[in-house]
């Protein structure tokens, strides 16, 4: 797990698959994803599969051309609109 972004409004965490933690002799699906937490609403969304690939491309574009905080927040806000899951502490 790697925190990629933390602001007053959002947190973005990259959840990386770790095949070494898999149980022996059991099939594993090694995937990664991104969790986006909207601090304003207390909701989160987990992106995996094609959504994660699309978001990863966005991050790669940001690495080539450093965006403003406003540009990042606007992009994250678009994803956060899809968030349905409340953030739960456990």
From TrEMBL:
This is DUF3567 domain-containing protein. InterPro entries: DUF3567 (IPR021951). Pfam families: DUF3567. The lineage of its organism: Bacteria, Pseudomonadati, Pseudomonadota, Betaproteobacteria, Burkholderiales. It comes from the Bacteria.
């Amino acid at each position: 797990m790697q925190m990629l972004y933390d602001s007053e409004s959002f947190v973005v965490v990259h959840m990386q698959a770790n095949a070494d933690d898999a149980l022996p002799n059991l099939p594993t699906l090694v995937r990664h994803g991104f969790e986006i937490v909207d601090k304003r609403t207390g909701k989160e969304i987990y992106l995996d599969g094609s959504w994660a690939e699309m978001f990863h491309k966005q991050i790669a574009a940001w690495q080539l051309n450093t965006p403003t905080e406003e540009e990042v927040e606007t992009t994250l806000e678009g994803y956060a609109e899809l968030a349905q899951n409340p953030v739960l502490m456990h």
